[in-house]
Amino acid sequence: GSAAAQAITARIPQMSESKKTGLATELVKLATSKKPPLPGVAEPAVVRLIAALNVPSTAEFFWSRTQPPTHPDVRAIALKAVGGFMESPTKDQLGKLLACANESDFRVVGPALVLLNRLPVAAKQADEWARLLEAPDVGARKLAVNKLGEIDSAAIAKGLIAQFTHHDRPLKEFAREKLLKTASGRTALIDALIATQQHEEAWTLSRSMSTVGRAGAAGTGPDPAEP
Length: 227
Fold this sequence. Notes:
Layout: H1 2-11, H2 17-32, H3 43-53, H4 59-64, H5 72-83, H6 91-101, H7 106-117, H8 126-129, H9 138-148, H10 154-161, H11 169-179, H12 183-195, H13 199-209, H14 212-215
């Protein structure tokens, strides 16, 4: 039970590395056993205990627990645990983190965003990250705007323009600031202004375009005085 797990956790600082590794191996076997399966109510305590042992060889176990149908509470523990082992994620691991960030349950989204925020975005990964521009969680969208906003790409600019229909005003403003920094972004703003027929959206776009002349072709950004 959780009381037993807490008692073991309290003794971890006094354990040798070999003892930690041996215990972690046994607990992973327990957690992954099909006959008998680990009761669902016990899983969070066992997974939390494995995480507390902090044994690098358990990393793959935790990655396997970051995705559905694992319970969100266990997924949250697993995401925090892989953060301790992750330096440069593989393509598959990055995909798992992005999938978690693209959900609506903040128990899963939150720790995924913490890990994603640590990572640089290569231009060749932009399409994968761009999925977050449609994420249910506004924090995930803001992270994507921050990571992708200065990549000069028509596809990214289109994704930033799409933020103008979101209800979160700071998100819209952030997307607007990023659009002004690239040639593709400024072109997308002009095209959107021409195409829009919605009064509020037109006002937002017009306000953006009023700074384009000052931003200049070099992409120097909006005037510091622009609200």
